[in-house]
Design the sequence.
């Protein structure tokens, strides 16, 4: 995950953050979304046309003044209607309504629209709860990855895994195929040998028009529509994260989530930046949010989010990205894990900074805090994040960054859920976060504050869970009913 201030922002005068110049996200207040606004997925698949008006006079007038021919869709589909092509905007649940998932509209406007002024004006309306520019997130701008040879020659990749007791953890709990780990990222290469098992079909939510990117940035591959093919042919970021969680173990250590299944969601497209030879992952906040919500709706119990947006790059008055998606996932009992960031200083990235999210920093093989790892009070703990042996687009890579520390925590969370299932118990996201934070190995004395409670210990977390379940069982057995 990297800062995106290299791209010139067309209207935000505070920083150099970049947002789409042709779309923005508007969340209406509860009960204010007209029932005829189609879901974005139906629009992308050609099943419905975008609405041209909401029916709210003031909102339509403001949109028309600034946006010309405005086209409107609901960002998210209703979980109950995912298979109802053309009618996915019907049947939202109470959770989807309360968390705001059902109430986010995507407004697509004409090129040249001053979306900043439009956002400010829309925010003044009583029926509008928040307005968010459709920021563009980028991963891999400063790649630290190094390629392995075709046979994966070199060190065996176990050193960072042994640091967090991965072998002991997998011996204790092999994972449950019913536990699904969503990886919302740049997609995966599904024919890679490391994904020969445990990989679900996934989804692709990328929709990037050429007019949405700054000049000189070339989009690569499939960057439009919505489909069930999450294949990444250019970037490798998602494959690297997914393999840490669910690799088969052919030429790298097996994934820490064991038999748990990986659900790849391609929400970051591929782009080539001026002066660069390596493709990077780029995605709009809207595409990432659709991916997060879809992962939950498709059954993910854990979601890995190795992306983020720098808080300093946002308009101080704007709503923070991913708020509805994070609230929805938490309400549905889904554990969220995010990379803390690669800024090398104390900084806030979203979604890592949300209290419902487990923010993960990076350490090296000697448990020293990585020089690039973002710190802050919101960082829960650290995991290995330097030269991690994992899958690439093709072959293998040694990947560095908090992007590759987070999947170790996501996989550990999946093992905790698996263990709870095996012992006829259940875990809420807050309990998973508490167990992982309590089980860490304390930091070295030279690790500064802001790097969380210590270094991940997957085996110790499972042991603490067993102790908690045993304690609850003892209490029940010794209760008054047994007297």
Sequence:
């Amino acid at each position: 995950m990297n800062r995106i201030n290299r791209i010139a922002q067309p209207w935000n005068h505070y920083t150099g953050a970049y947002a789409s110049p042709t779309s923005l996200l508007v969340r209406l207040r509860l009960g204010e979304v007209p029932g005829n606004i189609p879901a974005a997925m139906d629009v992308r698949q050609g099943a419905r046309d975008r609405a041209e008006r909401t029916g709210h006079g003031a909102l339509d007038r403001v949109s028309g003044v600034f946006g010309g021919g405005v086209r409107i869709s609901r960002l998210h589909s209703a979980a109950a209607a995912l298979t109802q092509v053309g009618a996915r905007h019907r049947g939202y649940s109470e959770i989807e309504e309360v968390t705001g998932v059902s109430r986010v509209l995507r407004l697509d406007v004409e090129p040249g629209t001053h979306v900043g002024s439009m956002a400010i004006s829309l925010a003044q309306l009583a029926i509008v709860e928040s307005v968010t520019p459709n920021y563009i997130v980028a991963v891999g701008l400063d790649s630290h990855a190094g390629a392995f040879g075709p046979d994966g020659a070199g060190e065996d990749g176990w050193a960072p895994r042994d640091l967090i007791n991965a072998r002991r953890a997998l011996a204790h709990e092999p994972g449950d195929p019913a536990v699904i780990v969503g990886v919302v990222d740049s997609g995966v290469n599904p024919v890679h040998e490391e994904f020969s098992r445990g990989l679900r079909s996934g989804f692709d939510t990328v929709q990037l028009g050429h007019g949405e990117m700054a000049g000189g940035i070339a989009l690569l591959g499939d960057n439009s529509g919505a489909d069930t093919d999450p294949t990444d042919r250019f970037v490798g970021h998602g494959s690297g994260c997914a393999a840490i969680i669910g690799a088969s173990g052919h030429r790298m250590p097996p994934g820490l989530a064991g038999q748990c299944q990986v659900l790849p969601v391609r929400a970051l497209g591929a782009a080539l930046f001026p002066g660069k030879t390596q493709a990077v992952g780029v995605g709009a906040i809207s595409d990432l949010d659709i991916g997060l919500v879809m992962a939950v709706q498709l059954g993910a119990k854990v979601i890995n989010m190795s992306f983020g947006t720098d808080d300093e790059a946002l308009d101080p008055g704007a709503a923070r990205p991913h708020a509805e998606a994070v609230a929805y996932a938490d309400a549905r009992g889904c554990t969220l894990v995010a990379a803390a960031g690669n800024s090398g200083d104390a900084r806030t990235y979203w979604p890592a900074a949300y209290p419902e999210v487990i923010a993960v920093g990076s350490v090296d093989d000697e448990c020293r805090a990585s020089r690039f790892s973002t710190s802050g009070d919101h960082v829960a703990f650290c995991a290995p994040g330097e030269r991690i042996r994992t899958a690439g687009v093709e072959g293998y890579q040694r990947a560095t960054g908090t992007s590759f520390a987070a999947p170790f925590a996501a996989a550990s969370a999946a093992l905790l859920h698996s263990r709870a299932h095996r012992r006829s118990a259940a875990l809420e996201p807050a309990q998973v976060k508490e167990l992982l934070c309590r089980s860490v190995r304390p930091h070295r004395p030279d690790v500064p504050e802001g790097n969380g409670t210590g270094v991940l210990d997957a085996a110790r977390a499972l042991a603490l869970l067993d102790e908690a379940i045993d304690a609850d069982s003892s209490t029940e057995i010794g209760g008054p009913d047994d007297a």
Remarks:
- Residues 2-16, 142-153, 476-483 have pLDDT under 50 and may be disordered.
- Residues 106 and 475 are 51 Å apart (CA to CA).
- The chain has two domains: 19-135, 140-469.
